[in-house]
Amino acid sequence: MNLFGSYDVVVTGAGSSGIVAAIRAAREGASVLLLEGTGFLGGLITGGRLTKPTGLINSTIFHEMLERCVGYKGADGRVHESYWGKYTGTFDAEVMQRVIIEMVEEAGIEVLLRANVIQTVMKGNAVHGLLIRTKSGESLVLAKAFVDASGDGDVAALAGADFMLGRESDGLTQPITSYFRVLNVNVPALIADCEANRADMWEVVYPKEAGDRNEDYAMAVLLTGFQQRIKDKVAEGFDWIIPKDHITMKTGLIPGEISVNVTRFQGNGLDDRDLSRAEIEIRKQAYCAFDFLQRYVKGFEDAIFLEVAPKLGVRETRRITGQYIITETDVRGNRRFDDAIGLCNSPVDVHEPGGSRAIMDHVGIGFGIPYRTMVPLKIDNLIVAGRCISADAIAFGSTRNVPACTMTGEAAAIAATLASTRGVPTSSIAVSEVQNRLRELGVWLGIPGEDVPDALKQAS
Question: How far apart are CA 130 and CA 204, in angstroms?
Fold first, then answer.
């Protein structure tokens, strides 16, 4: 067997959680290998066009990423408010890709793209290596500590960790989706249409000082609604093939650019056939929605269909069973935990499995994310980060969002680096050490008695 290399920390998955984890681990002094199955870095925040963090950013690495995007005039770093709470800025996907490449290279991280983990190498209950498959064949990767930021919990599952999948009643997961992008939209006319039909809109967010130019609205508009309009036009005969009853859209960096979130495919994100069908059906749905917008929403008359996001938006797969399962009650009740590693105010964002509805419920000043949700039962030398942490199906509606993913990525990196530096298993690292380092970095932990940022106090 070919030995690809030996490292202090190996991070699997280069989405938002994995990027943050790799950069933080490298900055803490670890030699890092970042493995990614696709051909690009950033996951959904780049290839998925998921360019608006749903909540306030509380990861110092991700905050720096956003600020660098601002420096390239490719982001709005200000705090904004929606009906579901406050969130930090928006950014352009390609500018973010540029920033990620810069920061990864500056940190000295080795990156291996188009690499899939196919097996774990175990010593007892501890992970010591990964068998990977690339175009060159199969190779062995060794490390002192591992971070599973794959989103699907692939490494943890291969190591034998228990996991949850879907809701308890029927096992269905939240549906798969993809953004699609449109150019040459008359944004002032679109906003006027939404204001004229305000009763049919859940949110109409735009700069009130903006004028009549598309440039005035770049990365500053968020619209959700059109539910009654869809119902009315379907009754008149429009063939709406999408199992979703509303549309969300946002403006991009290019004047007149709109990203639309409306597609929905019910399937298992771990099943190859479902994923293949999703790729095709979601494109058909995107074309349907574009036709609808051109016919029935002002401002889209001369719009040009640009693309469906190249990375499929899989919302939910495995949730690894950790030492603690964070619950809906914890999230909605703003619970604090002694072992919390980040304060999260992301809303409970659940797209109905098997149905057409969605909820976006405000959680006020937020809740603490326990470190125990990142530690799989029975498995050592492995910490999970991102959307595969231990959460029930409703709590997951909040923890799957970018703010929580990046917080867990940063905490996982600190724990993994401490373990690798000392040559000890990750289980021997006290959470207090991770918290102390996060506190030094300026992270709001979400522990009992901790003060919270002014923005969240106002949100409460």
Answer: 48
